[in-house]
Amino acid sequence: MFRPVYILQAACFSLFLLSGCSTGQAGPQGGQSTPTIQNPASEPGHETPPARPVEPGSFLDAKGYLLPEFQAFAIETSENLNIPLNQVQALLSAARLNTTALRLMTPSTKHGRRSWIAYRTRHVDPIRIRAGVAFWNEHRDALTRASQTYGVPPSIIVAIIGIETVYGRYTGNFRVLDTLATLGFRYPDPDRPERQKMFREQLADLIDLDHEGRLDAYSVEGSFAGAIGLPQFMPGSLAKYSADGDADGRIDVATSIPDALASVARFLRMHGWTPGLPVFAPVRLPPDPSDLVHGGLTPDLSWQTLQAAGARLIPNAHSGDAWQHHPLGVIDLPDEPRKQTEYRTATPNFFAITHYNRSYFYATSVTDLAHELADRVGYGDPNRIVD
Fold first, then answer.
1. Which tens digit of pLDDT belongs to each residue from 288-328?
2. How far apart are CA 343 and CA 289, in angstroms?
3. Following DSSP, what letter does each residue of 254-292 receive, concatenated?
4. Which residues make beta-bridge pairs with 341?
5. Is the Cα dihedral 43, 49, 52, 58 positive or negative?
6. DSSP letter at 221?
7. Which residues of the chain have pLDDT under 50?
8. pLDDT, tens digit, for every residue of 57-79?
9. 176 class by beta-carbon count within 10 Å (0-12 exposed, 13-18 middle, 19+ buried)
10. Mean pLDDT of all residues in the chain?
11. Domains plus CATH for the chain?
């Protein structure tokens, strides 16, 4: 088993470029009860008064009280989540401005050219393939349980954890309380108020998880954008979609491999994963399918529509025909430096992955890595990529 090594990993930000992990509706696996653990910070008597000595980088005024916007947030969170106000104030009083998170989240002034080939090379790389095979073999039993419970192939589960944290090697060493408070109230891009709002919502979710005893918000660490553990779940996703994979009565996606595996699988299933469907359909598209690319995260084409546009089945494909009865989407993978674009026909399972990260590059890399891993462990992957 890999021991998580907490170092700065800029790749962790991939989850938050247009993150979907903090939202989503319950799917076929909804209603699962959530095990909890006792958190001493939520016990009576473990309370910190809102007034305290002012420390550098705090969100307190000169008298040691929360700044007005933080106090208003504390009151709102207390009322909405039915948490004692002094507990919310205590957590917010302990938060500190994280200037590194601000710097890493500041938009670049340079316009980089998108390159699918470069992105794939960075993520479907020999290190992730070799380490992924070892991870799969070491945790095969837990992986099989998660796959059978939620209907998600083990190759996809392993690939997501591989791309997110290289199987737990890089999970982040930023205190989540600090990053979420910083980004929720001091977000560096004034043109993105919706991002600041999202981070405030995640901060409220973190406070709620602490109140329920499911984590210790004073100490839990994660990425510079607030993502936690091997699967890099934001607090909202941790609250809604995590699972107790080792049946020990608690959920810990930071150190429990079975919990992390089950949580990834449950997340995908609850965001529309359909067991048995490939991620990409075995379709040969017409020479210029750009008009078929509608963008977005919802497939809106039928197989009949694609056929009318000149799409054809790839001969001798072994993906079955169930996908023909589901909505499809044509996705584009541009490589601007080379002035070329790859196109693929995606099924609903591709779009389930985009709820984890909304980038087409990300979801395609997950699938490509899953294919490489499945080949090397001899797993008959129904989601293998069609050439």
1. 999 999 999 999 999 999 999 999 999 887 778 999 999 99
2. 7
3. TT-HHHHHHHHHHHHHHTT--TT--SB--EE--S--GGG
4. 334
5. positive
6. E
7. 1-50, 385-387
8. 899 999 999 999 999 999 999 99
9. buried
10. 87
11. 10-107+171-239 (1.10.8.350), 283-377 (no CATH)
